[in-house]
Structures are given as structure tokens and as C-alpha cells.
User: Fold this.
Amino acid sequence: MNQRLITDLEHLLTRENVLSRPEDLLLYEYDGSVEVARPNCIVFPRDASDVVHIVEIASRHDVPIVGRGAGTGLSGGALARNGGIIVSFARMNRVLEIDIENQRAVVQPGVVNADLSAAVAHAGLHFAPDPSSQKACTIGGNVSENAGGPHTLAYGVTTNHVLGLQLVLPDGQLIRIGGKPLDAPGYDLCGLFVGSEGTLALVAEITVRLTRSPEAVKTLLAIYDRVDGATESVVEITARGITPAACEMLDGWTLRAVEAWVHAGFPLDSAAVLLIEVDGLREAAEEHAAQITEVCKLHGAREVRVARDAKERDLLWKGRKNAFGAVGRLSPTYYVQDGVIPRTKLPQTLREIERIGKENGFEIGNIFHAGDGNLHPIILFDARDEKQFHRAVSTADAIIRFCIEMGGAITGEHGVGMEKDRLMPLLFSEADLALMRAVRDAFNPAGRLNPGKIFPTGKGCGEVRIRPMPLSGTATHSTRSGSIPS
Amino acid sequence: MNAPATIPLSRIADIVGAPNVITDSQALAAYSVDGLAPQIAARPASAQEVSELVKFAAAGKLAVIPTGARTKLGIGMPPSRYDLAIDMTRLDRVTSYDPGDLTLSVEPGLPLARLAKVLAEHHQFLPLAVPFHESATVGGTLSGGVDSPLRQFYGTARDFVLGMEFVSGDGALTKSGGRVVKNVSGYDLHKLFLGSIGSLGVITRINFKTFPLPRTTATFTASFPDAISAREFNSLVQQSALRCQSVEIFSPKAADILNATETDGWSVAVCMAGNDALIARAHRDLEIIARNAAPNSLRGFALLDAAAANSLSLAISEFPVTATTAGAVVAKLSCLPDSIASLCEETAAIAEKHSIASAHIFHGIGVGYCAFLAPGNTAAQYRGCFQELLALAAAKNVFASIPYCPLELKRQLNIWGPPREDFVLHQSVKRAFDPHNIFAPGRFVGGL
Assistant:
């Protein structure tokens, strides 16, 4: 069965575009999350027509199909949970069209996020979603997960910037939705497909809006001796009606880990820092920077530094965007969570996270998008200790449950994937999930597209993390250190 | 599929209470959609009652149309069936509002004008400068898919609706999204309701992100001899560092409808928000850009006083209403920004060929409204004109529809234009939400 599938795929794509050796499969059994699942094979389509034929072959052999970009996802979205074919878009990485005048670009799904921004920088434009993995992650992956990033506070997440898609449905139909102009008559299909985590269709082409880069940018670093001072500042900045371009927080534990590696200039003795950016016209950026400085000092910031030039600014951002790499130096395995809360609930939520950590014997670092209440607590654990791993997962669950109690959500930008499917019932009723399933079944009736994602499967977390067939060693539970969350 | 001749009234009265059941034919006429009145109208007071009504309708295969202030029921094709109007105006509460979080939950029957007052107390607002602003409800505005000049800066409802609760075709009370500003938990089903004119279900609650109300705004107008110069000005403004609240391009005939007496020729109105220094800077920049766009032919550039700015912005958002009231048929057109001028010229030429006057107004981002006024005002005259218009749109990658269209004309053409290649996906969405085909059957794109 498997061999016949591989032969069919090789016949379609040539052998160099199909991987099926055990050592190849190993490389594709993980992403940036703590999940692991082994595919039967990996294929590299070169164009939309290849994708259509792959889908047809999968249908003939009745095997699952899972789209994959760079594999930087943090919820297991690009893993073949039930085996099957991983469709890697790595070789469909061409920018097909750049329309400067109309601020549009048409790209293949494998185009790397930062590459698109680089390709239009000469015209003063960029692609607004900026996950921390933007130097690696692909726009196709961004579309599937509805990726965010620090600057989405002011500019919106991926769905706000996608205008059209070319879809490949599981029955092999190739259909365009949306388009370069706005407001196609009919239902907002792009709004549905962006963020559907590869469960409704594969995407062969993406039309995006490009955003004008700001004339002025001011980056501030506010330094606190009390965590509460930082969270209270965020609450007041929001309440005053200032929307910074970005508003990130690092707690003392995290900033010390970062500083040891990146040397971004974060003071080692502080309890928390806020990295805040305002942009726009010079006149607006200056006014907002002054107001934010005032708010931070009012809430006990011992110092507010303003980056003097692009170099200083880049260094501060380097500290933020490489934070998870820094954490990786301290522990081989860590679990990054992705909860959301109303912004006014930041102070008590951070206190509760600390309490939950202590109760479970973990030190939890916090680095997150404070401006939109999107938390990323980091739990360090030893993957070799099975009990500790399970405790790390239950600790993360406790944090998410608290987020929901606060009126929040289970994921702000990483997706549900196979990480949080079991948590969906905490947020959604049986009726809510039934309608979502009905929508999935309308597009993906045989369930071949990315099975085992988003919807609760009824399996416990320990169960799904067991490797189906260990390749080497004695590992049964597989866990991985995260890559680079946004 | 035929609806039963009579609907058991007592069951509906059990759900909403007898005083909230309308059966009088005169009163029912007010719920008419394209000349078709329902057999009954019910005025529920809670999401639970809506759910019960829809379950009842689903069991009896009754065709349902949810209504608000009933200002935009004319948008869409005539319904193929219509038995029960669900009047949502008693669900008119702000259910939660946290100014500190800039988040808000409301029921759909809440009038926009009343909501604006609640938000203004906290110096906040929703960027929905839409037609019928004095009477329209929140739910009707979102369902009707009307847009706002403020989308230049704030986007459309799809960018600031965080979640919804709604009743789908089997009567289940369902939700998607949430009440936080960033959320990727589950499918964004609520986005499908925007502009769906009641064809997927009945919205019972909407969660919004709110915005700080700008303290100071300033509106500038620049007038040009032709559409090309106005387009060039728009293009330069869009490429500048300025972050405009709105940019509106309008033809001389549209200026008459807007009563924009301060303009002369093809004009562009630009609204800016910010501190005094920023406004002063915008004033300088915009004037230079205007002169560059029309080096020797700029007809005028002005900063409007507050009263003139207010009345112009109001007139712009009410343009389709004013034009329709004057007897015009109004089409919505979407193109790429660099084709605005040519699309205006081509559509004006089509109109002229059919001896019809036309007036154009476009958001700078490429979405516009074109009012057509035939002196004889005959459906036959319009039909030829719109058939050509829809054919032009299909040939040129322009999206076109005729949201403000009289019934006699709807009988002769499809206001949504020909179905596109993605129509099968729209059918799938409709079936998933409304398996019994009870919601506004026949009104939406492709007869959904």
C-alpha cells in the first residue's frame, strides 16, 4: 500500500520531490511545538497543478494530506497526526506579482514572510504580520494559522491582510476566492479559510495587501522593579486610547535569560521591562512616545529609555525576537503557551501564573504581547522525565483555564492544532463545535485534510504524544524544544 | 417546499408572548421585502426566544427573514418565499462594555446612533459611518454589508468584529470568535455573517473592538478638472506617509447630490485625525500633493470649517440613500485604486449611451458607488445599462452588484451579477448553516 502510494507520487513529481526514507520522515515528524507525529512521506509540489494531482492520489489511496510551510508552527498544525502525505510548499516559493501602486502582492504559499517584506521594502511597503519566526516561516503557514506577531497590535493579524486565495479542495477542485479588489460579492470565504489550519483546503496561491511603512518609529524600553508596575502601565496605555504599534513585556526571569545571550541592554536587576513601539507621522509618534513615557513613570518605571537610532532599536528587538533561542540555552525542552485575556486582567493573571508555577514546582517565564493580552508563558521541563512532562502539560492547561475564566481564549496566534483540541470544549459548546464540524465536513467531507486537528478527538494528551513507531532508542513520549514563537 | 397555508399562531405567541406577535396585514406590510409580506412577524426579546422561533420555523419549513430597522431590506434579490419576519428590535441592549479593554458586546437590534452615544461618553466609537445612520441597527448594518469611508484607516467590520453569537438553521444557539482582541480559537464563522443579508442565520450578539474617538479631525478638499487628476491625487496620497481617516473621490454630479458647494469639478475629500502639529503638517503636504497631481489645473484646495466638514462626511456616507430617494439606482463597484478613473469614465459612458445620468463616488482604496438616474426612469432603459455594466465588471476583474435596485428591475436582471467560480463554496457554506433552506431563500448571491 505504502509503496504503491510512493510510486504514484514519484511518477507524478519525480523521485527528488518525494521523501520516504526513515531518516527523512524523522525530520518531518515535529514542528515548533511539543507534539510529534510521523508521516508516510513528504512531497514537494512545484505548482498548483502538482498540488491537485497529489490530492487526487491521496484520495485514491485514501490517506491523509497535511500542508506544511517551514514547520515553525507551535500547535502541531503541520504534523501528520494520523500519518499520510505531508505536502511541503518549500519549493513553491515564488513571489508571482508585486503591484506597488495598488499595494498588492500575489505569492506562492512557500514564500518566506520576511522575504516578501524585503522584496517590497524599496517602495516603502511591507507585509504587516510579523511572527518572530518571520525569517523562516512561510506565508502559506501564516494563512493556515492566521499568524500574528508583535506589530499586529496596531496592524492586525494575517486575516486582515489576505484578499484572495487559490484553493485546492480535497476532491481536486482548483478554485479562486476573493481577489485583488476588495469586497467580492458573496460570503467572506477568505475570512473563513484564513486560520482554518489546513482543515478545509490546501492553498496554492495567496493575494495579500501590502502596508505602507511608517515615516517615524520610536522604540521605548520601560524598566520596572515591580511586575505589577509594568502590567498596570499596559492597562493605562490602552485606557488612554493610545494604540502602540507594538507593546511587548518580558519578566525578570526571561529578560535575564535573554540578556545573557543577546546583550540587548536589558537591566539584569529589574523585575520586568516593556518594549513599546509607536509609529506613524513624526508628529504623532512624538506625542505618543511622550504620553507613554509619562504613563510608565506614573506606574513606577524606574527608567524609560528611547532608542536613539535604528541600531539601538534593532538591538532591543533582537532581544525580543530571539528570546526563545535564549531560553533554549537554559533548558533543552520548554513548553510555550499561547493564552489570551482581556488586557485589563493582566496584573492578576500574571500573579496567578506565578502561583500556578509554584504550586507545580516550575519556574515560569513570561514574554508576551502585552498590548493585546496575548500571553506566552514558558515552562521549562526535562523531557526525559515522563512525570515532569505530564506535569508541565497540566500546568499549562491550568494557565489556559484561568485565561478562560478571565473571559479570554485558548489561543491568540499559535492555533489549536493537535495541542489544544482537547481544550476546545472549555470555550465552545457542543452546538458551536457541531456547526464548525458541519462547515469542515462541507469542504473536507472525507476528513482527509489535516485530520485530528482543531476538533476534540477524545484522546488524552499522553496518549496522542506516544510515538507510533519509535525509530531509535527507548523514547516513547516525544517532546521537543520549541523553535521561535512570535 | 411550499410553506403551509397557515402558521399556528398560538405556538409563536407561546414563545414571544401574544403582544409580540404581529398578524395584522397593514402592520405586516411594513415587513415587506420586495413587495412580499410575511404571514406573521414575531418580536423576540432574547436569544433563547430567537432559537425557539427558528426551531419552530425549521420544523415547519417556514421561510424566515430577520429584520432590524428595515432600512436595507431592499438589498438582495426578491425572496422566493417569506413566511416569518423575526423583528430583532427588542434585542437592543449593550450586554457588556469594558472601555478599559476597548471591547464591547451588543445585541443586534441596538440602533447605531444610541450605541454611538454610549461609546462617546468614554471617548470611543465604532468606525461605521454608514447609510441610514440615524435609524439603522447594528445587526442590520453588519448583515447588509454596507461599508464606510472610514475603512481607509480602520478597515471594515471584518477587521473589528471579534465574535458573534447567532442562531443557525436548526435553531441551535451558536457562537464563534470571542471577546478578546486576538483570537484564533476555532473557525471564524462570524465573518461569514457580514453582508450575508440574513441568509445564514439570525445574529443575537456581536462582540466588537472599539476605538478611541479622535479628538481633532480636519477635512480638506481638492478639486480637479478631470477624473484622471483626482485619481492621481488619490494615488499620491495613498503613497505618502499620511495616514488618512478617509479619502473620497467624487464626480461633479455626485458633488451635486452631496451638496458639496465648495468643490468644483472632480473632487477629493481627505479627512485627517491627530494633534495640531499633525493637522498643520497634513495641510501643507496635501496642498503640495494636490498641486503635483494637477500642476497647472488645480481648481481649488481648502480646509473645511467644522460645520462644512461634518455635513460633507454625513452626505458622503448617506450618498446611496440620497441618490435612491431622488429616484436613482445605485451600483456598488470594487476595483484596484489605479483603475478608479477609468472605471468611472467607462461606466459613465455606458450610462450616457442609454441616456442615463450617472454620479460616482469612490473610496480611495477602490470601492465606490455609482448612482444612475434615467429621466424616464423605465426599467427597460436601466436593464440595458446594467447588463453592460455587469458584463464590463466580469471582463475587467471588477466586482459589481446593485444593492439599491427597484423591484421591477430586479425582475429583469440579477443584481449580484453572474456567479463566480467559487459559487460552489458559497453553496456549501449555505447548506452547512441552513440545511432546511429557511433563511431568506433566494435573496443572496446566486439565488442562495
Notes: The first strand of chain A starts at residue 18 and ends at 19. DSSP finds 17 helices and 20 strands in chain A.
